[in-house]
Queue: 3 jobs
Job 1
Amino acid sequence: MMFNLLRSDLYRLVHGRKFWVVTVLSVLLTAGLLVTLMLLGTVSGASQTDTDGVSVTANVTAGLMASARTMESHTAILSSSGLGGSSILSMFIAVLAVLTVMDDWDAGFVKNLIAGRHSRMTYVASRLLMPTLLTVWNVVVAIASLELTCLVLGIRFRHTESIGAYLGFCGLKTLGMVAFVLIVVALTMIARSKAFGIAAAVLVGAGIMGSLMNIILSVIAVYLPWAAQLAQWLPSNTAKLYTDSAGLLATTVGGTSLGMPVWAHALICFAGWIILSVGVALLVNRRRDVC
């Protein structure tokens, strides 16, 4: 039942305009931005230097110059592209996910589906799986278009990561984006409001939600000191911990000890938020009236 619903959703989505508009935006926000910055003359590199006092990357002076056309690494240029959690790309993907989820409510499809004695849980699960697939698709498109643009422009890299390090970095970036989108979708399904969902997508994508949560936790930490540790587990803060594949090996970032490598912290954080978002959405809508 769930896969039948998912297949139907994918068919409608691929034959609609929203899907392709966001796909084109994914290309423009990565490859298009890189070409624009090349024409302007420079692209700033990313750096990650804290790991128990030892530098884990050599890209402190990294940058893409129009003349030299060199960059520190593949993952460094992915970081410079803004691919990650709080970004314009994540905002557009989240908005698409909200519109896709709420289309059924607006059309009355959900009411007819439940009236036919189909399980609410099956339907909700398919609604949560769809944004996950949308996110993975757009992230893959963004990465592929960026790498292809680098190839076409003849950009060279000062060092090349191993396949495992590169795929691990891309995997965490994708997982982080999925976490951001599913948080927005879960909030939308709880509120059952397209306007609220779009607003949540903008707040998350612009980083406003993360900043607000940091402020709230800092206020709570005045009375409950342990609350300050929770800020490390916010998706927005976790996405800032690493800027390339070398940064994934750090155990101390920004003077704060994580007690584990960055990749392990990010994996636990993003997976935890995904599980929490899915669990809350399923629990709230388990017996809730569809009207």
Job 2
Amino acid sequence: MFGKKKVDPPVVPVRWDTEGGFVVGEVVRPSAFRKKGLVGRRAVRMPVTLDGERYFAAAAFVEQRDPEVRSYELYDATEAEGLLCTVEPASGGRGGERYQVRDQAGQELGVVFRTPAAKRAVQHGWWLRQPGRPDVVARYHWAKGSAREIAGRGADAAVRGAGSLVGSVVDSVLYGEQAASDNHSPARPTKPVTWRADDEVALTAGHTQGIKLYVPQASWLERRLAFALAVLRQE
């Protein structure tokens, strides 16, 4: 009927291990022209299309254990909120921050690192390590080779290369059909960030509808480890 307000369809949770991109936050539906956005519990969310409109369905609820510490529990949104993983600060390492990610049985899924401030002109602030795989790192395009090789080039190289992020993944990978409209919005998406394991693209991050979207690329990448990186990066 003309003039009748459209009711939003129910946005049911989705499986956390479903392939595709994800976001972290409370937004269920972004606000639009003359349309107020919808929000819910803080969660890892996946884009879904309902009645021709984009929504973000919960996949894993995010609970902070201690407001004074970056310590989190992620719960399955589809199965009575069963624990998926924990994210806890860890000691050790050469500077920076380390966070251990463990499954519900306490087995380590990997570690998320925050790059020490002195190295952030060379690589992105957050990276991860998954057992049995090369480190997953987002470096600037000029920073080739191992961490030791990069460090050996000296501070001058860092200064010359600062400000240029890896951007090898095209918008269509990150934004899908939404890319064209997003690129003409007042707030243009920032350049994508690409995390690589040696020469293989493992994870990318860009923006869709003003929300940071993460897209796992490597089939072997542990999604819960990627969730942890995204949760920590948003703090």
Job 3
Amino acid sequence: MRKILSLIFGFAFAFCFELDFNKGAVNNVSVLSEISKSELMLDTTWAVTGVDYEDGEFLFSTRSLELFKTDSEFKQKAYLKSTKDWIIQMEDGVSSCFYNGSVGIMSYNKTYTFFKHVPGQSDNDANLAWRYLYDGYKDFSLDFKDRYYTVRAKQQYILGWDHSKFHGEFFIATVPDNIKQSWSIASFSDSDNMLSSEFVPSFDEALDIKAGRDINDYYITGIDASDEFVYLLSKQYSSILKLDVKSRKIVEVFVFSGVADATGIAIKDGNFYITSRENGKNFIHIFAR
């Protein structure tokens, strides 16, 4: 598991990412245009590892199991920091997710937790929430906590996670490691959080794949579900893979440049919002199709 651990802690390691999208596996790509890049002025020194968007708010996660709710201009509105040491052990945070009025954070071992935002709750309720939160217990309470169990990807870690209202499911993507060089997608029903499907996506024939290349050339660090599609952010080759869940095929590949360490993705008004970590600071890039 050396690759994933090295990525999370930001150390140099044997696996070197190729950011040039021209060297990717796909010939037919859609090049995105960068609208803006700005530093995220969140009250944290930790790396932002995930982002989600819903109804005028962004949700950012950090490696230290922090969650930040912001407005559409990234102004901080609410904050929490989850503990790790529960019955189901959390590890470092890798992704964030809005779901059913709650905010969630996922760790790389597929363990996750959701909190409800209850501003100004009673001292008694805040005291109960204190068992699960280092900070934010005055304004958040535990909703539910669980862990996803997979078959194909049982021993692999993840860096991306999101909920699809359209499909009524949560989606995760694993990352390769030193033992298993492939990756896969898994989905879980939002009615019982049980495994619904697990598969290795393939490329649609219309994309014109280069000889000797395949889906395992990509390394998924973020996910955003939008309508019937799931968008997979790959740090490798600076790409966004548009997944048709029904066919289990990548039907379009968007590419971008200028992002040194792509960690999370959200879609707002048709534009892609990509978080990155550069020189100890967190940034967000906005790309248009």
